[in-house]
Amino acid sequence: MTDEVRYPYFGKPPAREPRPASEEPALRGKRVILSTPEGFVYDVRAISQIYRDGDGRKVIDVVLEEHYFRWMFLEVIAPSEAFPSHLVWVE
Asked: How many domains does the chain have?
């Protein structure tokens, strides 16, 4: 008997590399990671495409994942935040 771990079907899924939101063709509903001065914030969903705010900055509206599902299933309005697109990564 070997110490090799046997995985069913196709084996272990490949690791995913985060990619810049600016390179993603469709953002709405995707899990994203926010880059902040305090560190990375996970469990966030994009609810818009990239757009320019009133100051001309490229931003993406994001919500916590919990609020996203409440909005999707229960139609409870989610408190969103416009976050700079260059600081958003798609999982």
From this structure: 1
